[in-house]
Amino acid sequence: SVQAHKEEDNPQKTMEVNGLTPVPHSYDYDLIVIGGGSGGLAAAKEAAKYEKKVMVLDFVTPTPQGSSWGLGGTCVNVGCIPKKLMHQAALLGQALQDSRNFGWQFTEEVKHNWMTMTESVQNYIGSLNWGYRVALRDKKVTYENAYGEFVGPHTIKATNKKGIEKLYTAERFIIATGERPRYLGIPGDKEYCLSSDDLFSLPYCPGKTLVVGASYVALECAGFLAGLGLDVTVMVRSILLRGFDQDMANRIGEYMKEHGVNFIREFVPIKVEQVEEGTPGILKVTAKSTTGDQMIEGEYNTVLLAIGRDPCTRKIGLDKVGVNINEKTGKIPVNDEEQTNVPYIYAIGDILQDKLELTPVAIQAGRLLVHRLYGGATTKCDYVNVPTTVFTPLEYGACGYSEETAVEKFGEANIEVYHSHFWPLEWTVPSRDNNKCYAKIICNIQDNERVIGFHVLGPNAGEVTQGFAAAIKCGLTKEQLDNTVGIHPVCAEV
Amino acid sequence: GTCVNVGCIPKKLMHQAALLGSALKDAQHYGWNISQPVHHTWSVMAQGVQNYVKSLNWGHRVQLQEKKVKYFNIKGSFSDPHTVRGLTKAGKETVVTADNIVIATGGRPKYPTDVAGALEYGITSDDLFWLKESPGKTLPSFILYVSLECAGFLTGIGLDTTVMMRSVPLRGFDQAKKTICFTTQQQMASLVTEHMESYGTKFLKRCFPTKVEKLKSNRLQVTWKNADLDTEETDSFDTVMWAVGRAPNTKTLNLETVGVKTNSETGKIIVDASEATSVPHIYAVGDITEGRPELTPTAIAAGKLLAQRLFGQSSELMDYDNVPTTVFTPLEYGCVGLSEEAAVQRHGSDNIEVYHAYYKPLEFTVAERDATQCYMKMVCLREREQRILGLHFIGPNAGEVIQGFALGIKCGATYPQMMKTVGIHPTCAEEVTKLHITKRSGLDATVTGC
């Protein structure tokens, strides 16, 4: 492919050699996807099914600490996948404790080896990176490990690791460049702090960790680090899990606190200094109260920043082609067909304004977009009632409205909230927290008591929530819920 | 009753003990420094389980008291249509009369009648959960879900376990079992038993026992006929457990005297849609009723609705359709609705579409666990709307996965609606919303990558 493009002047011939029909207007490609993550790859593979000439450009700018990764995007490399595996490692630590009550005998205190876990996780991720490259090859999608940016209408420049630049043209483009973690903008943040981009491949145990932030990323990481036996503190500026149901968010926080995670509330770090070099070293963090003048200091081996993610849209030449972005957030507004203000340029995934930042949403959007572009379909991506799960030590699954937004939209008098605590059977014998797991459904009284919100806090929350999301999609009402017999004994029957 | 004392509850807890055994092995891959193999002590587990069950017994007594329900620990039988006569353990007699009577005496495990020594030397699930000492090398006999579940957790805690089966897995003798989604679902049953075999449970297929004798060592010698090879074989075991079906507890109730009709074949009480027996003010709910699934949640729901109808609050009848359930074998199997066979029988194979997939739970990857039998299928009507008739799932936490989808099916869920539902990532359940390969196409149904 590289050789073919060096010649550059007869793209037509190249394509005929590959057995594909020529691209209109002599563009190099029918479709170029910028970003090889969940959304980008799904769209590219789908387009290839329609025998379109597709190229995927994927490039990872290394983190300030030097971390980088292969094809697949955030989810596979530094998101959902390693997160869930490390969460599983922490859950297994708990299982070890429980197992004694169930008759398993071992007297020693079991310790965790960070390197063993991280190597296994990275090996699995490596197999996924490889799998994606093979899949693209099999489907005849051209993949280049290069940084793509627009340089003019229908034209992008791809720059690889060695700095070699190439120009490509396409009839259509899909921007799926995703996001990267935000830094605080304080002294020492880029030099000494880690982000989730670094954590999952860290070649040494992070030790005593300060997690800055209250996003699901912050709480999930703090959760599994504590579960592996590390001393963890979370520094929160104001509330936990902004945008999520706050009652559930507080329960999650309470649970983490009771299980050994320290919380420093209403403080923000103002500087990070290195006390001692090492892997890990020792860092000193100075923080200021958000409600007064109080200052505190603390020493940690690792500081993990999880204060939010910023879209990768500012340096990809969008101004050269006139694609509008929200100047404040960097997000791209699109219509309900994922089209930007430039008709031949589309966008999917985390970079979209006012859409959920979830892998399955990006995949769904990408596939449906391609079906509409090349398959004559009209189905649009349904962004309503998308379920999600936060994999904190006590998992939280949700679909639909939070209690606050339901009250706001429908009025308190028009909604009914049914709720219950429950004690998973598996927690009885080891005498684990008997009043922490909780479930609630929010119903719209005026619409036949339709279930408009589902929230569950408990083990396997994702597995539990998925089916309920399908039921909500079918217009589930309270009566239908009452008429459905439970499976016994499982958590979901609550 | 059964569920709390010798059924669902202790079963799930012992299943959990076995799952934790697997978790211990997985933990090593995830970085936990635990030396293998880890040994299991039956008595610690049994005590933990038994203590919890006793707390539930106590809880029930307290609840009845709080709700001012009079509780008699007596064995009751009818002396006339409105009178129940009961005997305490000590033989003291109590007589109670009532306006309405509900029979909910459930069932008890059967013993095989044609095997010498079965009663003297074998145990049943009624005994298993209360053993103080490990059952050792065990032979649970015959294939009902009880047998597979017990064999599963016994293997999981490290015991040498063999299952003897006369015919095919998960077939029940009771007519009622036909209403449960898994009884005719051959494919899923095979996957479940395949997994158990790879997990260490031994199966003696197409064999049936002829006698059980006690040896001088106190072990049990079992003799059986192998129908395939037409041979007779023997082996010794510490425990022989019968799981050959459950018989309704009706014999000592004196039902004939008051005219309550039972099914001559099964012995179960015949009821109508309102749980009424052939005698107007006598009702029956639960495992004892003919043609109903033998499941705790249906009994509970039916009982509650009956009480609501009797005392004027409602006219709502119990809906026995699309009752979801789960078999808690080492690799769990959850299902709701029709089996593939039942759907074909009812609608014809040309009118149904089966979507299926083999998937790998993320947690199995690092743990290097075999996911060959992790599988799911959705049976739909083929015509335009594509209503879902049945959903079957084999994998971890099958019960948690299926419950929500059962709600969807109750709402008349269709395949397009399922496809519109966005998945939660990464879970096993999300694969249900991504099913797209049909059996009809013959294509490889293995899920590949994100």
Please describe what this structure looks like.
The complex is a heterodimer of chains A (494) and B (450). With 494 residues, chain A is α/β, with parallel strands linked by helices. Chain A folds into 3 domains: 29-178 and 312-375, FAD/NAD(P)-binding domain (3-Layer(bba) Sandwich); 182-307, FAD/NAD(P)-binding domain (3-Layer(bba) Sandwich); 395-483, 2-Layer Sandwich (Enolase-like, domain 1). Chain A is built from 16 helices and 23 strands. Chain A has helices at 2-7, 11-17, 38-49, 73-78, 80-101, 114-138, 189-192, 196-199, 216-227, 246-258, 318-321, 359-375, 403-410, 425-428, 461-473, 478-483; strands at residues 29-34, 54-57, 104-105, 142-144, 146-152, 155-160, 165-175, 179-181, 194-195, 209-212, 232-236, 262-265, 267-276, 282-289, 295-300, 302-305, 309-311, 345-347, 388-390, 396-400, 415-422, 437-444, 450-457. In chain A, the strands form 5 sheets. In chain A, strands 1, 2, 4, 5, 6, 7 and 18 form a 7-stranded mixed β-sheet that branches. In chain A, strands 9-16-10-11-12 form a 5-stranded parallel β-sheet. In chain A, α10 (246-258) links the parallel β11 (232-236) and β12. Chain A is globular, with a radius of gyration of 24 Å. The N and C termini of chain A lie far apart (57 Å). Residues 1-19 of chain A have low confidence and may be disordered. Chain B is an alpha+beta fold. Among the domains of chain B are: 72-103 and 250-321, FAD/NAD(P)-binding domain (3-Layer(bba) Sandwich); 324-441, Enolase-like, domain 1 (2-Layer Sandwich), CATH 3.30.390.30. Chain B contains 13 helices and 21 strands. In chain B, the strands form 7 sheets. Chain B has a 5-stranded antiparallel β-sheet with strand order 17-18-21-20-19, with helices on both faces. Chain B has a 3-stranded antiparallel β-sheet with strand order 2-3-4. In chain B, a hairpin with a 5-residue loop joins β17 (325-327) and β18 (333-337). The longest helix of chain B is centred in the first third of the chain and has 25 residues, at 42-66. Classes of the chains: A alpha/beta (494), B alpha+beta (450). Chains A and B meet through α5, β3, α6, α12 and α14 of A and α2, β1, α3, α9 and α11 of B. β3 (104-105) of chain A pairs antiparallel with β1 (39-40) of chain B, so a sheet runs across the interface.
